[in-house]
Amino acid sequence: MKTKSIMFLILLFSVLIPSVAAESSQLFIVARMNASTFYAGDAPIITGKITDQSRNPVPDASIRVDYPFETVNATSSTDGSFKIIPTKPAGVGEYGISIITTKDGYEMAMSIMEYSVLEKPSDTSIVDVDGIQKGVQDVGTMMVNGLTQNPIAEILAQQMDLAQKQQDALEQRQAEIQKQNDLLGEQRKIVNDSLQADLAQMDEDTEFYNPFNAFSRFVSDVDSSVQNIFWGQFNLTQQQ
User: Fold this and answer.
1) Per-residue pLDDT tens over the stretch 186-206
2) Which of 133, 136, 123, 120 lies closest to 163, judged by CA?
């Protein structure tokens, strides 16, 4: 009975090892954007690196970046790095970008990035003092009830009131932009924390399921008298 059990385990082992060896390596994407908030007309540039599950660079990997307004393709360099520059400017709005990388012998990897595009703030209007003075000279003086009145004070007051309104509108717009940036910063932190947690879990899963650890758990359940036979076969398979 014990001999049959050993033969069954050997047969199971002969099936397990080829299936583990045949698994493809996993690609990983490490990418960043040159900013998280842009103004209309700016180009959201992405740089990054493609690695395998051992964090070794993977050259010649195909990379596809799906912007909302176009798709850009690239290939990783000899050190696994890449740089994506879109050809079309960004329009106002909030967008998501997908980055997909593939290569023969590897499992596909995908990453998601988000960014916002805001309108460019308008410049503060400049009051032309010389123009005001020239207008005053053209107007000259006004006769009201026999009294001479100079309109300089009235014109200056109107221009100062206009400039103040423009300044208030600009400050209000800047406050709205800052509020949007703060909100986006909080959202990006939540996304980044979730991504880091997923990467940490992925590293733990990779370590748990690598061939050596998986085989160690398998052999621990086998009778100690034949464990050396299994380890010898495992080492021979790894050398091949």
Assistant:
1) 888 887 777 787 777 776 666
2) 123
